[in-house]
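> example.struct
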């Protein structure tokens, strides 16, 4: 089945911008034209593609078709480069699933190396980002999953090292008798969100116990550090982000020389891999400067 390019562009723009009006502005047409294109596409598919609301969201079929539109743009961009056509059709769009700590430490540098690409990032835990690939909603992902997702290539990048840190006052208050399982069971910790298992993983790796300490939920890499500095709790912070705080004594490791190494993998759709080769190269080069063992 073939689709009209302007129909696909309308769908992708509505889902990206969240409304028919914003999509119309994005494509320099009227909202009525966007509505007509979406209706024509839905009639052709025989199912609803958009959940009308504020914002508009995609149905399963709508998300898949929007991803198809993105893939077409990437492949056409590659063809133009390969044939040296010099077409000035504007930047292509690329949707990637990435964990917040990679974004905060090294992934922005990778994006900055690539020209003529507009990035659409989905933020998810590294243990769960592969699910976006499995559903066909992204073209690539940073994930802790070493085994390739079906239909994808997996490239090992190295490990992001996390350090269990807290403020000196917090350690004095909660770990005056030493950092042990009893104290860890009571001392408040910091958790990014419900998917974040780093704190429990560190306890299990270094103390051999499964504990569930009381926790604050703070879904922000920067807020995580600020909360630790403020004495709210202890948490697993990426070593590159807390190196200076540790050096200046604002944060203290709970246990010396006891990092938690989280291996990261770049997984990319095998079909799209040639078109995404420049991005893959940038990801590998940027990761090599920060990750360990890459």
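> example.seq
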């Amino acid at each position: 089945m073939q689709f009209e390019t302007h129909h696909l562009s309308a769908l992708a723009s509505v889902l990206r911008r969240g409304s028919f009006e914003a999509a119309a502005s994005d494509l320099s047409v009227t909202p009525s034209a966007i509505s007509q294109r979406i209706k024509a596409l839905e009639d052709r598919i025989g199912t609803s593609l958009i959940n009308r609301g504020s914002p508009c969201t995609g149905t399963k079929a709508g998300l898949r078709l929007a991803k198809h539109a993105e893939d077409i743009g990437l492949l056409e961009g590659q063809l133009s480069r390969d044939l040296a056509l010099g077409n000035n059709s504007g930047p292509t769009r690329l949707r990637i699933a990435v964990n917040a700590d990679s974004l905060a430490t090294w992934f922005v540098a990778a994006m900055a190396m690539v020209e003529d690409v507009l990035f659409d990032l989905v933020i998810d835990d590294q243990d769960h980002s592969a699910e976006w690939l499995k559903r066909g909603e992204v073209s690539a992902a940073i994930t802790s999953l070493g085994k390739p997702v079906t239909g994808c290539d997996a490239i090992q990048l190295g490990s992001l090292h996390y350090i269990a840190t807290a403020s000196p006052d917090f350690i004095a208050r909660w770990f005056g008798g030493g950092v042990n399982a009893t104290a860890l069971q009571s001392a408040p910790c910091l958790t990014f969100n419900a998917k974040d298992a780093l704190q429990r993983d560190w306890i299990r790796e270094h103390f051999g116990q499964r504990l569930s300490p009381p926790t604050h939920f703070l879904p922000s890499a920067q807020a995580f550090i600020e909360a630790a500095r403020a004495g709210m709790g202890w948490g697993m912070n990426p070593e590159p982000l807390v190196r200076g705080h540790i050096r200046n004594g604002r944060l203290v490791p709970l246990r010396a020389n006891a990092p938690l190494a989280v291996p990261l993998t770049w997984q990319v759709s095998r079909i799209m891999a040639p078109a995404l080769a420049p991005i893959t190269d940038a990801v590998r080069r940027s990761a090599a400067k920060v990750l360990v063992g890459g």
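> remarks
The chain has twelve helices and eleven strands.
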